[in-house]
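I am still learning, so would you mind making up any protein sequence you like and the tokens describing how it folds?
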Amino acid sequence: MRNVDFSPLYRSTVGFDRLFSLLDSMGQPEQAPAYPPYNIERTGENSYRISMAVAGFSENELSIEAHANVLTVKGEKAEDENEGDREYLYRGIAKRAFERRFQLADHMEVRGASLKNGLLHVELLRNIPEAMKPRRIAIESRAGSEPKTIAADLQKTEQATAA
């Protein structure tokens, strides 16, 4: 594998720290645990859902926290009083604690969470501030004709390039 040194670029850039840290981490093996499994779904134009398989956990044993663009889901099983009375011949159901972190994009809000049939659903909404949304800018004409308008609509531009 070929290693690329980005250190000369670090000196001349401002505000691209996150981009470079992502590039640096691409060459490293993924260290995230595979438990519990999860899906990330797009449910609308600006809405998303994270679904995690947390069978055997109740609402009291799960916690969800969002802080600084990081969503953290933790699960800890409560101790069972009858655990000492049982002898397992085979134990295949995981009963371990977990902590899963998701890096959220800018302007993402956690709208709610629900637990149904062993699946934890976390609803997310991408809420872009008005100041950052595309807007139309009128162009004034000096020749006395009607003003022209430039569309700064990103979706139309993307559709035109895709076609």
User: Anything to note?
Assistant: The two ends are 36 Å apart (CA to CA).
